[in-house]
Amino acid sequence: xxxxxxxxLDTPLHRxxxxxxxxxxxxxxxxxxxxxxxxxxxxxxxxxxxxxxxPIGADKLRDxxxxxxxxxxLSPDILRLAQFCADYYHYPLGAILLATLPPxxxxxxxxxxxxxxxxxxxxxxxxxxxxxxxxQRALLDALRAAPQSRDAxxxxxxxxxxxxxxxxGWAMWARLPPExxxxxxxxxxxxxxxxxxxxxxTLLPTLGQFGVHLIxxxxxxxxxxxxxxxxxxxxxxxxxxxxxxxEIALTPQLEQHFRRRFPRRRFATLHSGLGEKDRAxxxxxxxDCDVLLGTRLSVFAPLPRLGLIVVDEExxxxxKQQDGLRYSARDxxxxxxxxxxVPVVLGSATPSxxxxxxxxxxxxxxxxxxxxxxxAARLPxxxxxxxxxxxxxxxxxxxxxxxxSETLARGEQSLVFLNRRGYAPALYCPSCAWVSPxxxxxxRLVLHRTSHRLKCHHCGFETRIxxxxxxxxxxxxxxxxxxxxxxxxxxxxxxxxxxxxxxxxDTMRPRAWAELGEAVHGGAVDILVGTQMLAKGHDxxxxxxxxxxxxxxxxxxxxxxxxxRLFAQLMQVAGRAGRADKPGRVLIQTAFPxxxxxxxxxxxxxxxxxxxxxxxxxxxDLPPFTRQxxxxxxxxxxxxxxxxxQRAAQFAPDDASVSVFGATSAPMxxxxxxxxxxxxxxxxSRLALQKFVRDWRPQFDSIKPRVARWSLDVDxxxx
Length: 719
Ligand code: ADP
Ligand code: ZN
Ligand code: ZN
What we know:
alpha/beta
């Protein structure tokens, strides 16, 4: 009887592939990575079940080439999680399984991981070597005290003895040093605040089982400290913790903080900023680590002893992937926690309305931290500068400049927030009204003065700044509006004595954060100018003024999530001001000072605003009161994209509980020369919607002509 192996491959097809398993390859447990022929090439796939028969007929099947035993098989819990994603996001299982792997392990080239640590095996720990073998004995004793690095052993000319110990089975090379030494696992923590203690009293007894806990805590209330204590409790039981953070830039800081608190624990980090080799090594190391810290992709990492998942800044949009498998790492984290029977802790100063509504409905357990942990730290005063009455000069008002110069005079630091990088959002011709269009997108080219270029922030198109108007020849082109570069220039002109630093995606690489932190802490910076990047997770005690410019666009945006997002952003920026013993002040320039958002913001009243927004969403039948799926189509003409969606709508299953809206062009109708259209489907029932799409999707492939590319976005965040 032939053995037939079902293999999942990274293809757009929603199916598995059968291969014959030659006798010599031995046992192939599900999750093993195998190399198989596919078309004229070979591919890496994931072995699933073994069968005795195939509808194709065993004699027509091709053979599995080999089992890749240089890397571990995907574990049953990852296979289960991938199946959940395949069902929920309507995405091919094989593509998901391969996407859980770091890129380097998706190809068949053998991978040799670095194993820089010599550690004792169980046998080594138990043994008493003969007294004669002095050198070996000394090394064994050294290993009992602490693992030894390969480099150190080489430097001490101990490599030969290391090899001897390995050959006897007393030691082995490992990727991570195991816990060792006499130092305690945990360094001193500050005594918990009353609120933190109350939170711990409710949370600690629940750690043994699945549950979703939402921690809503104002900035500086000590959420991180709370995570650390929960993690500590979980590690003490021999389990692992997974901590998801929104930004690569935040991992080094947080890692440092964690390492200091847990000096003997093993850490691993995972994010897309790592090189391919490091990413593969760290992924392999995740299995044996105590704490894995990483961005959204780490939600799929192998963690055989998983005991707790923490999602920090759970409201952050970067947890949602915007292409390929459009998953939300927060939601997948919840699914994983549920499958594994472990708790998941979501934390934020401004939870997503999705999570908050779940908490209000009692499905998530809500924990609130209302006070800042350092008792002297008050929440800042928030004042509005009314642009209807106070004129702007180069984007700034007189009161704003006044506040900046006073802060400077006191030797304190300020932060100026403008969520638009570049010099100006566009270049403008006053004589014919040409406004630097991107030739490939329905967007404007952004003026970048320092690099003398016009750049599209959507498709990456770049060109030189034209010497004259391309449309009418006028040589006198003007920057239109303000970007962070221009703001920096304006501030330098107004406050020549100030030391100004700009932070945005044009100036920051992940490594630059540590340096910036030092510069700000050391007092080498007076004014930080930047985009939302600077709003995240920094704790600068001498920062007492936050100035917020030009956020009015979001107040009346067609995107129904714009105010939720703006509120979160402003709370976060405001949270940067006055974190230690000095009172903070926040100034907001706006032409709409009567907008309700500001009223709640001034009271630091997230809960109030959330309730108001939720009431509005409920009335308008918007998420979280309804579930949405977006069918997106791209084609070279808008007609083709729309025609595809209209055809698709005709195939829609008959279900009264699901509404199918009309096909429309996307708000950003053209990107990189492709026209984009979309079709919204929604239902109050997640299950009904899921079944609807499951029955519907297979029809898409029969739609002719095939000129449009489609994708499904479940729980879309961006339209
Ligand atoms: P959040 O993550 O909620 O913004 P953090 O955990 O970063 O807050 O804490 C804010 C500040 O308060 C940090 O400087 C932190 O060291 C301090 N802190 C947190 N908990 C305590 C505590 N129990 N006692 C003293 N200081 C604390
Ligand atoms: Zn012109
Ligand atoms: Zn473009």
